[in-house]
């Protein structure tokens, strides 16, 4: 889950020294129809612990419906007196209609686009000027209100691309502060707040901002200082996640510093020359970074990185330079004081012999494009303001910069074109470089991958981009499709050593299956953990499966569920399906058909084939949803049209029984035959039933027996459970004769089911 957090502090001047402190905390995780949330309970508990340490009387609640939420909140409100201090904490789903922010109770269903008003009635407003939760606190006359609203940035009610959208906005609506108000957002406008970091262990349950904020909520600390410290830590940690930008924003309209508890020891701000210089330097670095973002050019990030190597955005600049820039486009002075020299980094794969120059190399490079960019003048002006306490960098004129590039060096545009061609031909659609659009491609599904064209495209990309692990991973995938396992292993290993999560995952699967290597689950688990720690959902799902099955790790349903949930919350359909199955079976979690249905539904929306079938089963049986044969037929048909044999069998059965469709034996037989052609045992037996009873075909004992024998050989035990009354006597006698001819039966041909007949049929299953 990507997170959004707003902290609202409303300060009233009439604060009483004897004011009591109260905290109301709600963490919603288990939603009936919306996606479950991974760490809302843990975040709520962390705030509860921190606030108790600050002298708050804490009311901690979890997973409440609308009625339960209002009952708990108004019961809490009865404890609050005018002049008290109140903390209101919410962690769970939230949404906004563009004017008002709402929290989402656990029973809320996903509405149709035309029913936004129903959604407003089903959820609870935070502040609307009259009956929102924060309005109620204001009306109570509290002296100090601290509200932490931690909700999903991406609304759970937004529709998929290409479908109608309910009129909601993305995330919650920023609230402009009034006098005496302090507001903090855990991510700036257009940014996403991280739920976890690649280095997190499964034991880390707190979101990135929460873990940094709560550790500063302690006696002797000013609230403003706690926010600033959490802001700095969150920004640096987020930047370590592939250059992710998460800069918590805050708005302070208070007139004094807020001491959380104890003696904070007020110290007036320093006015020394050193402090002024530091402030000026930080302002200059922020301006340089802003210009670099606007320019979106290598020379701009290079200048910022050289001048401001210790600034909060330096890791972002490093990631930009490493991933997008030709070394020739970067000033040599950038190598003097960069973080790359002070912190370990993965070693790039061995250089590949450059390809011969090609016509694309004559296209303008990114350095050339800077000539028309006015940002160079802005840089020169900004850098001239430096006081000499840091090395400065000269902005190289575009013509000189172009001349400094060796004629044989590939241009940036040629590199990018080759990257895109390789990614289009062999890129995995869920590769992080494609998801983030650092490589602008949608990738290609395995079934559509053409190894014949992909291999040369990715070889050329590897020649032009020797330090890009993703290219090695895509080339390995192309060789994998061509079944050249040794070449695939070689390139997977190169990319995996450079921390490419897709390569680590695919290499792990080769070790798990023993493809081209000696089968080794231990190595597979090690590789999957490395990829999962980077937040790669396919690796998280596969690691969950290893824990579910107990392969090279202790069997642990709870850990399996945890990994499945992490990947499911990243919208990985296979993880959503597996998580639904765990809820259906009660593995590692309390059995719940409703939650299983919700996760199957999410996977089905992504066209997960088995999830389509499961929705048909749940609608047919009324598991977690109102029983509805028409809906069951609809979902069975979607899966059957994609040749899922068990869905074809179930759809045939619905036609045979006339459930959700007009009864049709001919249609039933048509679907049974499609499934039987794929070796489906139940469908094969069901065809035999139609011949035995003469439904949709002429009655024929011999053909019925042939299908029964084929079904038994495929593993169906259904005929073993039939009593003598369940058989047409002539068909059972024909079955006994056939079993005798096969040397499996020596009893009487009497049309009665006895131990000998059942033993002979079981021999077919075991044979």
UniProtKB/TrEMBL annotation:
Pfam families: Peptidase_C14, Sel1. Gene3D superfamilies: 3.40.50.1460, Tetratricopeptide repeat domain. Residues 331-344, 352-361 have a biased composition (Low complexity). Keywords: Signal. It comes from the Bacteria. Residues 1-19 form the signal peptide. Residues 330-372 are annotated as: Disordered. Residues 19-94 form the Caspase family p20 domain. InterPro entries: Caspase-like_dom_sf (IPR029030), Mitotic_Regulator (IPR052945), Pept_C14_caspase (IPR011600), Pept_C14_p20 (IPR001309), Sel1-like (IPR006597), TPR-like_helical_dom_sf (IPR011990). This is Caspase family p20 domain-containing protein. It comes from Pseudophaeobacter arcticus. The lineage of its organism: Bacteria, Pseudomonadati, Pseudomonadota, Alphaproteobacteria, Rhodobacterales.
């Amino acid at each position: 889950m990507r997170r959004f957090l707003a902290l609202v502090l409303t300060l009233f001047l009439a604060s009483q020294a004897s004011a009591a402190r109260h905290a109301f905390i709600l963490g919603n995780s288990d939603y009936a129809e919306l996606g479950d949330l991974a760490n809302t309970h843990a975040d709520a508990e962390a705030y509860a612990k921190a606030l108790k340490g600050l002298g708050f009387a804490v009311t901690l609640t979890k997973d409440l419906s609308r009625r339960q939420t209002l009952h708990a909140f108004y019961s809490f409100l009865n404890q609050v007196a005018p002049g008290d201090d109140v903390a209101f904490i919410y962690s769970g789903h939230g949404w906004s209609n563009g004017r008002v922010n709402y929290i989402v109770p656990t029973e809320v269903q996903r509405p149709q686009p035309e029913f936004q008003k129903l959604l407003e009635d089903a959820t609870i407003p935070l502040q609307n000027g009259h009956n929102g939760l924060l309005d109620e606190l204001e009306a109570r006359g509290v002296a100090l209100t601290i509200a932490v609203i931690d909700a999903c940035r991406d609304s759970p009610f937004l529709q998929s691309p290409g479908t109608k959208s309910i009129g909601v906005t993305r995330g919650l609506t920023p609230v402009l502060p009034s006098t005496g108000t302090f507001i903090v957002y855990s991510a700036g406008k257009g940014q996403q707040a991280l739920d976890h970091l690649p280095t997190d262990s499964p034991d880390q349950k707190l979101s990135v901002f929460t873990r940094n904020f709560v550790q500063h909520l302690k006696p002797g600390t000013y609230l403003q200082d706690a926010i600033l410290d959490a802001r700095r830590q969150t920004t640096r940690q987020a930047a370590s996640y592939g250059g992710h930008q998460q800069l918590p924003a805050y708005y302070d309209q208070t007139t004094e510093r807020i001491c959380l508890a104890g003696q904070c020891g007020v110290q007036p701000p320093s006015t020394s020359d050193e402090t002024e210089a530091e402030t000026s330097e930080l302002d200059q670095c922020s301006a340089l970074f802003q210009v670099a973002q606007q320019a979106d050019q290598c020379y701009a990030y290079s200048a910022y990185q050289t001048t401001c190597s210790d600034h909060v955005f330096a890791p972002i600049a490093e990631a930009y330079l490493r991933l997008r820039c030709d070394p020739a486009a970067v000033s040599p002075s950038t190598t003097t004081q960069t973080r790359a020299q002070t912190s370990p980094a993965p070693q790039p794969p061995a250089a590949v012999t450059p390809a011969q120059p090609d016509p694309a190399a004559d296209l303008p490079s990114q350095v050339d494009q800077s000539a028309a960019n006015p940002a160079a003048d802005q840089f020169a002006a900004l850098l001239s303001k430096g006081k000499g306490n840091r090395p400065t960098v000269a902005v190289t004129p575009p013509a000189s910069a172009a001349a400094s590039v060796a004629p044989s060096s590939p241009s940036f545009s040629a590199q990018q074109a080759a990257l895109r061609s390789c990614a289009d031909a062999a890129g995995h659609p869920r590769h992080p470089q494609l998801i983030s659009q650092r490589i602008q491609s949608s990738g290609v599904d395995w079934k559509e991958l053409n190894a014949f064209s992909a291999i040369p495209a990715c070889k050329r990309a590897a020649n032009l981009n020797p330090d890009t692990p993703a290219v090695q991973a895509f080339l390995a995938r192309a060789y994998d499709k061509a079944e050249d396992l040794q070449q695939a292993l070689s390139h997977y290993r190169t990319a995996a050593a450079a921390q490419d999560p897709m390569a680590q995952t695919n290499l792990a699967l080769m070790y798990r299956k023993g493809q081209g290597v000696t089968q080794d689950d231990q190595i597979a688990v090690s590789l999957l953990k490395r990829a999962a720690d980077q937040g790669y959902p396919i690796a998280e799902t596969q690691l969950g499966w290893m824990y579910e099955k107990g392969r090279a790790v202790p069997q642990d349903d709870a850990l399996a569920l945890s990994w499945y949930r992490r990947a499911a919350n990243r919208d990985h359909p296979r993880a959503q399906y597996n998580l639904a199955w765990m809820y259906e079976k009660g593995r590692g979690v309390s059995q719940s058909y409703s939650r299983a249905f919700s996760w199957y539904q999410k996977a089905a929306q992504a066209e997960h084939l088995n999830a389509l079938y499961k929705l048909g089963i749940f609608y047919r049986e009324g598991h977690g949803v109102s029983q509805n044969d028409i809906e069951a037929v609809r979902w069975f048909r979607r899966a059957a049209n994609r040749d899922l044999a068990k869905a074809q069998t179930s759809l045939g059965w619905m036609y045979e029984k006339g459930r959700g469709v007009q009864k049709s034996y001919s249609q039933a037989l048509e679907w049974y035959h499609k499934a039987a052609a794929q070796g489906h045992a139940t469908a094969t037996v069901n065809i035999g039933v139609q011949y035995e009873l003469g439904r949709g075909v002429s009655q024929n004992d011999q053909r019925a027996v042939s299908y029964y024998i084929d079904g038994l050989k495929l593993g169906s035990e259904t005929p073993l459970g039939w009593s003598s009354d369940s058989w047409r006597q002539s068909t059972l006698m024909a079955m006994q004769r056939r079993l005798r001819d096969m040397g499996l039966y020596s009893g009487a041909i009497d049309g009665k089911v006895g131990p000998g007949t059942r033993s002979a049929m079981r021999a077919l299953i075991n044979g």
